[in-house]
Write a structure and sequence with these properties.
Layout: H1 2-26, H2 33-42, H3 48-52, E1 56-61, E2 67-73, E3 79-84, H4 99-103, E4 107-111, H5 130-144, E5 150-156, H6 158-167, E6 175-179, H7 185-195, H8 203-218, H9 227-233, E7 238-243, H10 252-261, E8 267-272, H11 280-283, H12 286-299, E9 306-310
Parallel strand pairs: 3-4, 3-5, 5-6, 6-7, 7-8, 8-9
Antiparallel strand pairs: 1-2, 2-4
Helix pairs in contact: 1-8, 5-6, 6-9
Length: 311
């Protein structure tokens, strides 16, 4: 009898914790577009070129029935880059990275992800549906700029994980730049359970209920959001950047990916030992960060795998 009560108690606690986490995953704080623009502008994250250059607004209908809204800056070269922002943030979060691309005449496209900013979609899915949305964006780009000779992705945090996931769908992608991405949604949840002092023994009780919640409410499984496996499928050159003091996404995720991918496809991993999660990682190391990105892009397609630690 006591064992039965104990078992039921464990299952109940697992369900409570799991459903709570599932609810938090699907309902992050969503920021209004104008608020994010104002914040980025006041902090000086938006370069002058962003405000001065002509941009063209666009709307794309997702395969899932909602609109994806963004804009692009047309460059004079035949190089195009698509930016992907972090979870629940908006397209303006990408503005801080754009100076190099303006200076080198790239065509730049940024847009609001599913369930963010001005775009539709009720819940985020951490890449499960967003990678199909990104496919629609890429199709739009290819039709709009058929003479594009180089096409790549740049993503930070969730946007970086999305770029890794999409790379498995696009064999002709010329490069991926991914900053502070997670490589497994299940693994990320487990990491945060550990940070809250919940023993690994109890994860097997909690995770199935997290998955049950996201499956019933968000219509996706946390076990099928696996950027690690997608990145191993892709043959595109990748630049991976992470901070050694990132407490939101653990460094070991990219370390493990680099170890497995370095001999499969060109992969560069740069670790800022004192770096935190984005955007702090970029803002505190801006000059070095920009030079890393520039060197990577300017050596394409002859990129060699390497791991670099920056003290």
């Amino acid at each position: 009898m006591y064992w039965f009560v104990f078992f039921i108690t464990l299952i109940t606690l697992g369900a409570i914790f799991g459903f709570f986490i599932g609810h938090r995953l699907l309902n992050p704080q969503r920021y209004p577009v104008l608020e994010t623009f104002q914040e980025q502008y006041e902090k000086g994250f938006i370069p002058e070129e962003f405000l001065k250059q002509e941009k063209t607004n666009f709307k794309i209908l997702s395969d899932f029935g909602y609109e994806l809204i963004g804009f692009y800056f047309k460059g004079n070269s035949q190089k195009t880059i698509v930016f992907n922002h972090g979870i629940a943030w908006t397209k303006y979060g990408n503005a801080k990275y754009l100076k190099y691309f303006f200076e080198n005449n790239w065509t730049i496209l940024i847009y609001d992800q599913r369930s963010s900013g001005e775009s539709g979609g009720k819940y985020p899915s951490f890449g499960y549906y967003e990678k199909q949305d990104l496919k629609k964006v890429i199709e739009f780009i290819k039709k709009k700029f058929p003479n594009t000779k180089m096409l790549g992705l740049f993503g930070e945090s969730f946007g970086g994980a999305l770029a890794l996931q999409y790379s498995a769908l696009e064999p002709n992608l010329d490069f991926v730049i991914s900053v502070c991405p997670f490589t497994s949604l299940r693994g990320l949840i487990s990491y945060h359970l550990i940070s809250f002092k919940i023993p690994k023994l109890f994860h097997f009780l909690i995770l199935p209920f997290v998955n049950l919640y996201t499956s019933l409410v968000g219509n996706f499984s946390i076990y099928k959001v696996n950027p690690y496996e997608d990145a191993l499928i892709s043959k595109s050159p990748m630049l991976l950047i992470h901070g050694g003091k990132d407490i939101l996404v653990p460094l070991y995720m990219l370390e493990n990916l680099y170890v497995m991918r370095q001999h499969l496809a060109p992969t560069q991993l740069f670790i800022f030992t004192s770096g935190k999660h984005t955007p702090e990682l970029y803002l505190e190391n801006k000059k070095k960060f920009d030079s890393i990105v520039a060197e990577f892009l300017e050596t394409l397609p002859h990129v060699q795998s390497k791991r670099v630690v920056i003290e």
